[in-house]
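Pair request: fold both.
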Amino acid sequence: MDDYPYPITAEGDWRPEHAKSVKNKLQIYFQSKKKSQGGDCIMQYDDKCNFATILFKSSDSRDGVLSKAKHIITIDNQQIELKVYKHIIGQKVNIIRLVAKYGCHFSI
C-alpha cells in the first residue's frame, strides 16, 4: 500500500444486498479519469459497511476526485450519490465516525 499513499473515503447509501457489486463499481468508477477524475487506485472495503477507503497512486488523481462536485454510481438502476472525504495524515476521525455509524469492522 506504500505505492498508493493518497487516500480518500467514499460513503454511500447502498443496500446490504448490493455490497459485493458495490466494491467492483467503486473500483471501476474511481479508476476512471472520465467518470470520477480519478486514476490508478486500490480499495479497502468491508461488505458490512457503507463506505470504502480508496488509495490513489498519485496526488493528482486524488485531487481530481476531490475537485469533482458530484459522484454518482448506479446499482440495479438506482443512482447512489457518494460523499468523498480527504484524509489528513494522522487523522482517523472520519473512519472512526463511519465505523461507529455502520457498526462494522475496518482496519485503520
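--- second member of the pair ---
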Amino acid sequence: MGDRKYRHRGYMEDSETEYRAREERKPRAKLPLDVTGPRLPRMVQTVVAPRCYNCALTLPESFDFSGNCPRCQVALHCCKQCAYFEPSARMQCLKPIRERVAAKDKANNCEWFSPRVTVARDTSSAASPVVTNLAPRTPEDARAAFDSLFKK
C-alpha cells in the first residue's frame, strides 16, 4: 500500500467481494402504483364528458349527436367531433373508412362515428355555508363588525 499514489478507500480495489457487495446494494424495481384505488380527498376530481369541438360546451351523456350544438350551432355528427379522428392517420381516421371525408367539420353519416370524450377538472365548487347578512345595513353595524374583529 505504500507504493500507491492515492490512499483513498476504493482506489485500485476491485476485489470480487466488493463487486458482489455493490451488486447487492442496487435498488430493486418498485411495484407499480394502483391508480384504480380510491382518490385522496384533496386530489382534483375529474369529469369525463363529451364537449363541442368548436365552443367546448359540455354536453350531457344522453345528447343526440345527429343535431347541432345548442350554443354555436355547428354540426356535431362530424369528423372533428369523432373519437377516431386523427390528423396524422391515413385519411385522417383511425378506422378503415372507404373514402376520405373532405370537410371534417360538416355533418356526415359515418357508421364508425363515436363522440369524442374529454377528461377535465371538476370546476364545480364545494357547497359553502350560506351567508344571509352579506353587507352591514347601517354605519353602526359596520363599526360594530370592525370592532368585533379586534375584541379580546
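Observation on the second member. Strands lie at 46-50, 117-121.
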